[in-house]
Amino acid sequence: MQTNTTPADGDEARGQARLALAQQEFDPDVVYLNTASLGLPPRRSLTALRAAEDEWRKGTASPSAYDRPLAEARASYAGLVGADPSSVAVGSQVSAFVGLVAASLPEGSEVLTAAGEFTSVVFPFHAQAPRGVRVREVPLEDLADEVTSRTSLVAVAAVQSADGRVARLDALRAACEAHGARVLLDTTQATGWLPVDASRYAYTVNGGYKWLLAPRGTCFFTVRPEYMDDLTPHSAGWFAGEERWESLYGAPLRLAKDARRFDVSPVWHAWVGQARSLELLTGVGTGALHRHALRLANRFRAAVGLPDGDSAVVSAAVAPDTARQLERAGVVGSTRAGRLRLAFHLYNTEADADRAAEVVAGRVVRET
Questions:
Q1: What's the distance, CA 28 to chain centroid?
Q2: Is the separation of the CB atoms in 190 and 162 below 8 Å?
Q3: What is the pLDDT of residue 4?
């Protein structure tokens, strides 16, 4: 996992102040602990979306004007994950970018992944089976130890969707460097609360509608410069052009020289919302977001008798009627892999953690 240094008192106080200000942009009607499924929009994103929709209604919207929020979102995301904007491509779905990497693998490649991984991360590699690409699944905890000289790529989520487990990223990166394997890291359940340095990995991919608080339809893909030419831009269209508004018709091929060559024509209104949500998140800062989410998750864990964890996502085996009791109490969570899943993000408070704990306390099934 990523390292996180202890902040100075002044830095932490400033982070808390920024976070408190950001929380004022949210007004859910429930105790919302389901960011792992769908994030909530801040007020600024809704305002921007409504303005864009009104321009659309009036007939005054300009297609080229949507380039600005997308460029802002690309730059903000790059800053959030420690990448250069030139290494960031944009699209709408995780599996499309994973498929791009899958199609680039040589015949007979071995792809190592975690057992029970989210299917958008692994289905594109299974689809390459006719070319001899083999997917090998191992327990998440053993992933770094299972990298061998036969491994071409490790495809894994930084934080598991089903239960919030955090991968041992430092160990995985070291193992892959030792054996010459690349890493494709899905940060969809991580970026926004967990510090992740995308520049450390060959490829990363992130869907924006969860922890990045966007409308569904935004996705980011990072690729290290030295691996860019190994990928064929199979979905290249006008938006992947070096001068996109001059790439609307005809040959020759004139793609962007950087990662924009992998861009997919954007869902315009989704990027209007994404730009403003990323503005909010980067304004708070990854360190403050991480400390806040983890503190609330562990506050909940302690209240229901679970040990401290390293994830903002809490997964627990609970009594069968727990989901119904949470719903009655106005607490929104989810069930994944037969377990209760609660996710804590910037808009959550101690009161949210305590309210959920009141319902779940005494309902946790002890596991051996």
A1: 22
A2: no
A3: 46
- Residue 72, token pair as written in the block: 């802002």
Q: What is the DSSP string of 31-78?
A: EE-BTTT-PPPPHHHHHHHHHHHHHHHHT---GGGGHHHHHHHHHHHH
Mean of pLDDT values over 268-276: 98
Residues 148 and 140: beta-carbon distance below 8 Å? no
Evaluated on CA atoms 222, 225, 230, 232, the torsion sign reads positive
User: What secondary structure, in 3-state letters, does 107-150 show?
Assistant: CCCEEEEECCCCHHHHHHHHCCHHHCCEEEEECHHHCHHHCCCC
| Tens digits of residue pLDDT in 290-342 | 999 999 999 999 999 999 999 999 999 999 999 999 999 999 999 999 999 99
Positions of E strands within 176-266: 182-186, 203-207, 219-223
Report whether pLDDT(12) > 90. Answer: no
Q: How far apart are CA 126 and CA 136, in angstroms?
A: 10
Alpha-carbon distance of 286 to 136, in angstroms, equals 33
| Model confidence pTM above 0.90 | yes
Compute φ and ψ for 250, nearest 5 degrees.
70, 165
